[in-house]
Amino acid sequence: MTGKGESATQDALTAATVTVAWVIVANKPFYPPTIWWVVGNGVGAAWLSVLSMPFFFAIPFIARRSALAARIALPVIGTIDTVFETKLFGTGSGTELFFAACIMLVALSFRAGEKLWQIGLTGFVFAGFLTTRYLIGDALHVWSAEDLSKLFNLNVFAVACLTAFIALRYSGIRGADHSSGTSPS
User: Which residue has the higher pLDDT, 35 or 180?
Assistant: First the structure.
């Protein structure tokens, strides 16, 4: 049985996870038109990136059954999505920067007693990065240098927005409710 303080922390962490998942779901459909508007091509490949949307959409429903499973699912789905999008757009597109958001989620989404999940997921995200760097091969869509530069800038902006949102959404959770249920000494 969990204590009242620990339960509140779990709820706050899971609520933050669900909020981030909803923000990703809400933004996914706008990514392809934004690529069309900013870059001017690659929209067909960009629409493939929307294929991951149902997996992010499932996270709030997973949270109803298991808070821990939802908090694990978000960085796992984010990592797989980042590998997929890097294969679509290439390593020069800046999509690998989304691994930073995945690592940030791993760092913020777990309680002290869930340290092994953090360690394992950190390895999973890093393995995803190594996969994109050394194993996936060429991008499915070929970009000109100018278009790749525009796509890179778009993705840098998107990652900055997402990581800032994650920081704001998780702010105060650990300070208000210590993950171990005890006060620091």
Answer: 35
pLDDT interval class at 6 (50, 70, 90): very low
pTM metric for this prediction:
0.88
Q: How far apart are CA 80 and CA 101, in angstroms?
A: 13
Q: Tokens in use for 67?
A: 């808070």
| Residue burial 146-178, b: 16+ Cβ < 10 Å; e: rest | ebbebbbebbeebbeebbebbeebbeebeeebe
Would you tell me how many other CB atoms lie within 10 Å of the CB of residue 70?
23
Which one-letter amino acid corresponds to residue 20? V
Please give the Cα distance from 185 to 173 (Å, whole number): 18
User: Domain boundaries in the chain?
Assistant: 4-171
